[in-house]
Design brief:
Blueprint (H helix, E strand, L loop, with lengths): L2 H4 L2 H24 L2 H31 L5 H38 L20
């Protein structure tokens, strides 16, 4: 090997990086394989969830005191708005169908929508 290949700083850095990565990987694997680590991580997650729950409850109370909506209030309004939009869409569909039926009936009555002609039979109408 020549001196250029031995003194190549990029190659030396890469070798150091690969060795360091393997060492860190091995030490992390050993640490996470320990029962104490998993128990400690479980306790940490329980504490984090408890803290999150307490923060959420206190923030909801704070917003209620300020007469501001909480996240759940906004989600409830969003759900209601979605139901209103669905109902409005069904009303629009029914209105469109009704207009089409009236337009078809109007063509049969000489262009006067809303006027219903009596059925054409050979019998005279029955007296009332």
């Amino acid at each position: 090997m020549s001196d250029d290949e031995q003194l190549n700083p990029v190659r030396l850095w890469r070798e150091w990086f690969v060795k360091s990565e393997k060492a860190w990987s091995q030490s992390m694997t050993d640490m996470m394989g320990d029962e104490r680590f998993s128990k400690g991580m479980g306790r940490y997650m329980q504490e984090a969830l408890h803290t999150h729950r307490m923060f959420s409850e206190s923030m909801a109370q704070y917003l209620a005191n300020l007469n501001l909506p909480s996240r759940q209030d906004v989600l409830d309004v969003s759900d209601r708005l979605g139901r209103v939009e669905d109902a409005l869409s069904s009303v629009q569909v029914e209105l469109r169908e009704l207009r089409m039926r009236l337009a078809q009936g109007g063509a049969a009555t000489g262009g006067r929508p809303g006027v219903v002609k009596p059925a054409r039979t050979k019998r005279p109408p029955e007296p009332t």
